[in-house]
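Q: Here's a chain of 705 amino acids. Please give me its 3D structure as tokens.
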Amino acid sequence: MNFLHIPVQNWLLFFGMNAVVLVASYVVSSRILRPVQHHDRGFVNAMIVAGLVYLAFILVLVLFFGVVVQTLNAWWIGGAAVTISVGNLLLFWKERIPFFSSLFGFWQAIRASADIWTWLFLGLLLVQIVLLLVKVYIMPVHILDSMAYRVLPAPMWVQMDHIPNVLDAPANEVNGRTLSIAVLAVWYFIFFGSDHWVNGAQYIASLTLLLLVYAVGKQCGLSRGNSIKAATLFFFMPLILMESVTTQDHLAINMAFVASLYFMREAFIQRNWVYAPIIGLSIGLMFAFKNNAVVYLPILVIALIWMILQQRLTMKDCLSCVRMKSATVSVSAALAVIVGGYWTLRNLVVFHNPFGLLFAPGVNFREHIVDTIEETDEPHRQFLSEVSGQIVNTSDGVHAQVAHSSQSAMHLMTGLFKKSLENLQDNLAGFFSRVSDVGNFLYTPVLKNISGFGPQFFSFGMVALVFLILSVVLKRYRTSASFYAATGLLMLLVYFCVMSNIYAYRNFIFFPALLIPYFFTLLGDLNQPDRHTNPVLARVSPHFMQGTMFFCLLWSFYFTCMPANANPIILKEFVEIEPHYQSPARYLRQFNKFRPIMRRMDELPVESGLAYVNSHQRNSWSYAFYDVHWKRRVEYIPLLKKYFQCNSEDLTCLPEEAFKKRLIQDKIMFVNTCFFGGACPGIKDPEFVEIGKGLYYFRRISSAE
């Protein structure tokens, strides 16, 4: 029996497994927050912590089985998840914060105080949340860098049935970046049997961040209605609406950062160490999701010092507290290491570099692929070499020279320091045009040269930024949310110093998340302005202000409702075909325009393997070669002299017998020669039949069988 062409048992297993883990995560969060569960924000805090625990639990569980137990079998992982979850339910069920009664109480409180605008905001928010869930299921992996390295490891791991330390892939990022998004993709795949839900992690992160912005507003003294409006205004930024249905990691790391900041302040406000493990968990998630976490950590330290100074605590007081709560501090640190330490540890052990091969030399996105090939005399190791002599890859495309990698990383750090002022100047000069999103009404998740913050930030966030700068000299503009806004601005300036590229603003989600609540504290009560309301903003009609906000929501809803990655005709066709054929190659317009043969990839027999040729750590859209069930074997074969003799003038290659023998040995029937950027060298050999641009059929494999 099928539902939407998917076996019903797959649906039941997928939703049943995630429901059990989510409920158990909520119960565990209630247990953690038991000493403060009757606080005004107790229920919302429990929901936020449940989201953090859910993501951390899945990450640690899948990594444990994939790395230690050496299996990714759904029954083993599912059995362990159910056993641990049921155990937590039995242990802590009586200590939970009642969910439905708390939700009903929250609803009653809204009914008692909400105005018409609150209902409009809330209604549109619920519609958007449901729509995004539908998009998570419908839309395939549709970001090019996700297909090159973010989610690519997931099908490789599933086929190998474990998570090795190193993967044979052309992109350096695969063996340098933190790959937690791919780990979560494994979880969302193994119970459903297809990749329809692999975008789910970012969706969970977006909802958790929505609750966090609401909680920040409440913590800063906003009314329930204004907190809802602030959170909704943030959530409807085009950047959030697009990222929440992808396999990117920008949402997840920023969610973890805001959570760390929020619970750190919550601990100081309530003077309670119960939040310390949650802070450790949040910091662990930061390091689990993205290498950029090293940039966030100093800002968290500065924020901690700020709060200590606000509380007028001395160093002696702080050390005394740490000694008294040494067990809690140790548990918090252990959580951070367990949740977020694996990828850094892997990089240190395997590559002797905390960033692995991420900054190794040889990355080149633009040059054509026929490069100088040099072979060394070292047994069993053949290296692709740039003309400069930098050795960047081996015959299996895996082990780069550690010395070069380390030198490159150190050179990069030195270069970043020297260029920091230049980067800062460039970013400040382009800030206004980037946040305005002028001329970019058709948003795509890569956000090239724009911010994706939408009209709501340009209309209200920029106003808040002006008042924040004025608050340095004018105390009347300092509010209870100034801490968050100032921390966000400091974090942005640090990013401006170390990062300047056309896609950078995907990393800056924290900035509007921390600045929008500050804007609402400047407004005071929209319906009943009082002496605390900013006198400048008080002159603006509350209804005009809220009407403008609602228009911004509708604008963002409209311009992100239809995904810009495919035109409406292709999207309609994509939705109507059977799930088996809903592959990225059939969806993305890049393939439809430049490589139409890729639209037929899912019609090729999955039993026959596919090889793709690459060199010099160039990215390739490797994930597009997999079918939705991750059954097709996809093998990377580097461009080596023992495999090819290439002509750089006409971009053609003559395959050697060694290459053919490898195809026969590995039972590979199809060969792809196209790389990131569009270059597709031709294969000149009668045994290879070109069935489309860059895609060849190997005749001998069928006769060998």
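Q: Can you summarize the key feature?
A: Residues 116 and 122 are 10 Å apart (CA to CA).
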